Amino acid sequence: MARLDPHSYNDSTQPQISHLAWRAKVDFSSRTLKGEATLTFAAPGTGPLDLDTRDLVIEGVFGDGGKPLQHELFKPEPILGSRLHVELPANTKAVTITYATSPEASALQWLTPAQTSGGKHPFLFSQCQAIHARSVVPLQDSPRVRIRYTAELTVPAELRALMAASFVSRNVNGAWAMERYEMPQAIPPYLLALAVGQLASKDLGPRSRVWAEPAVLEKAAWEFAEVDSMLTSAEKLLGPYRWDRFDLLTMPQSFPYGGMENPRLTFVTPTLLAGDRSLVNVVAHELAHSWTGNLVTNANADHFWLNEGWTVFAERRIQEALEGAEVAGLHAALGRRQLEKTIEGFVDRPELTLLRTHYEGIDPDDAYSLVPYEKGYLFLRTLEESVGKKAFDPFLRKYVDAFAFQSITTEQFIDFVEKELPGALKKINSQAWLHEPGLPGNAPAPRSVRLEELQKLGARLPEEAQGKKWTPAEWSLCLESMPRPAKAADLEKLDARFKLTGRGNYEVLISWLALAVESGYQPVLGRVEQVLGEVGRMKYLKPLYTALAKSESTRALARRCFDKYRDGYHPIARGGLEAILKKNAA
Asked: Which of 19, 102, 239, 476 is the most buried (most CB within 10 A)?
């Protein structure tokens, strides 16, 4: 037996799935999917087959020709879920599993009409990263097992079903509609994605369009109008775009992330709709994943930095090409500041600040942090500076081409660097970067004239004329750098001068509210409660709940808000917030 992924029952000596044919009926009344999954193997197989499932009701397992197969669904383990063990007759080409999902499926969020922008129809969406695809489909839920798929979704006729795949057809039969999709490129299972709701679209360019609920479509189309220029800039750096389309779906407020890089249909949080295009760097990040993550994928969660460190690096290079080095430098400085805070928070678990991690027995959602993103970015920046852009840019293109549509390990990355950039890893002490906790001393410092201006402020508050010119990144840097706790008089002056409590830009607003709560500044608590009830993005929820839960005076408010709003949070977000409250005895 060879289990190469600590978060999957997949055994590399068993037949490997190469194609999924999936059929599912979406039942909003029971909050379940009634499904049938046909798993075709790369080569005919015989003997044992272990599949990943979580909270699935298995109704039957069938082999070639529809013959029932001997199978057993084992008791669930806390992180992995339940192993579905199947015995395959000689030279079995495929297995078909009929099943139903649970109303509590960890990948799915079912929204009532009241939780949507339109208020008239329900909404369903998935979030399969890191190991939640198994709660939607029984399969080998490891990024090292890439699959192509076809899908047929049956949904209420008044709704649209979207998938991160190529649209094939839509047929309406009475009260129901069947929508067909096909993914011709091989993807890791965590990139399976679907959404069902009242949805409309608008083209942004020849290769991109935005989808959203009708009430927010025009706003989203304006905010993301420059996607095609991002796509062109990314191709100059990373090579041809290989997924045909780059469409966006603006999600309901409860979506737990800034974005999810599902190929052909990236999911993005509505908190990006700031009205000034100031937060579209998140779109640049998700676009960069089309190469680093979707095309070249980490083999398992132990190598997650290969997805995210590379993507932050590419995101900032795209940002530099479109907005200039000053803006990219500000975002790098903010990332560095937030990384340092993250590392401080792991003082009792320094192993979680390594790049090359060892997550056996650890839920990837529990270990999720900025470390693979920002430390990974700084590692690659250090490597780039050591050899120069003239050598590094061709190396980047070679890396993408060499491992396209593959899932790789850190060790494979190291071997490739040694071959293409001999001596560079030793020069920058890659051992410290990859295998030691914290941030190495040779991490490059971000450079920006605007950053230098911010640093000159020191402990002084910004003047009105100065603060009005700041970007969200500059504001976040200023607020993140203020002492904790800050003086109540300083907070009062800041809010009076810049109306921070009323800001609609969530990057600035959350930085401000977290500072104010940590400083015991009571006037913001009403706004904090309002925000906790209107957003589901974990980047915003976690600092606010942490700040509330740490203080005895606001701990009860944290618990009250969570109990009030928990049903509106995605299951992944709920789990993370419950851990924060438990840690602080709230």
From this structure: 476
- Report which of 207, 460, 162, 408 is spatially closest to residue 300, judged by C-alpha positions: 408
Annotated active-site residue 373? The verdict is yes
- When pLDDT is cut at 50, 70 and 90, the band that residue 586 belongs to is confident
How far apart CA 18 and CA 440 sit, in angstroms, is 41
The structure tokens listed for 233 are 């800039």
pTM of the prediction? 0.95
Question: What one-letter code names the amino acid at 365?
Answer: D
Q: Is beta strand 108-111 parallel, antiparallel or unpaired with respect to 123-126?
A: antiparallel
Q: Which residues pair with 351 in a beta bridge?
A: none
Task: Give 347-355 contacts, CB < 8 A, sequence gap 24+.
Answer: 350/437, 350/438, 351/437, 353/437, 353/438, 354/434, 354/435, 354/436, 354/437, 355/305, 355/309, 355/379, 355/410, 355/433, 355/434, 355/435
Contact 88, 69 (CB under 8 A): yes
Whether the Cβ atoms of residue 72 and residue 44 lie closer than 8 Å to each other: no
Residue 516 belongs to what H/E stretch?
Answer: helix 506-518
**How many C-beta neighbours within 10 Å does residue 6 have?**
17
What are the contacts of 417-424 at 24+ separation with CB within 8 A?
Answer: 417/383, 420/395, 421/383, 421/387, 421/391, 421/392, 421/395, 424/383, 424/386, 424/387
User: 3-class DSSP state for residue 537?
Assistant: coil
- In DSSP terms, 344 is beta-bridged to none
Q: What's the pLDDT at 527? A: 98
Question: For the chain, what's the residue count?
Answer: 586
Question: 150 pairs with which residues across the strands?
Answer: 21, 182
Mean pLDDT computed over every residue of the chain: 96
Residue type, 295: L
286, 315, 374, 518: the catalytic one is: 286
d(CA 516, CA 551): 12
| pLDDT given for residue 1 in this prediction | 53
Residue labelled with tokens 């090409």: 321
Residue 370 CA to residue 22 CA, distance in Å, equals 34
Instruction: Tell me, yes or no, if 377 is annotated catalytic.
Output: no
For residue 322, which amino acid is it?
A: L
Q: Which of the following is catalytic: 373, 506, 540, 569?
A: 373
